[in-house]
Amino acid sequence: MGDRNPYIGDDEVQPPTQSYQIIFVDEARQEHALLVKPEEIPYGDHGLPGSLLDIALGHGIEVDHACGGVCACSTCHVIVRAGLKSCNEASEEEEDQLDEAYGLTGQSRLACRCVPNGRENLVVEVPVWNRNLAREEH
Fold first, then answer.
1. Structurally, how many domains does the chain consist of?
2. CA 120, 22, 127, 70 torsion: positive or negative?
3. pLDDT for the residue numbered 1
């Protein structure tokens, strides 16, 4: 899968122009601090370039994404605990998918669609209930 769903429009994204930090808090409550450099984006082909999913997977942090990161499910639901204002606005398609997510909060986003602009550091929680029980262990 790639980063584009042919059935939805493109999200308005402002890519970062400066380095910033993201702390991912995984399902085991372990923190992973990353320095994100704009010149290294994109890391792969899951989610929008520079999305939280792209960054997490590019640094070996597991975030489930059953649809491959094309905004067709809610398995990459994350909670942006700090820095949400520096992220692009959620599209209507993203909000529709988030409606299916368990434990939805006002800070919930789909990691495949949430792209920080680099103006703030972020703290992102990967909820324990998002674990895909059918995924293969590494």
1. 1
2. positive
3. 44
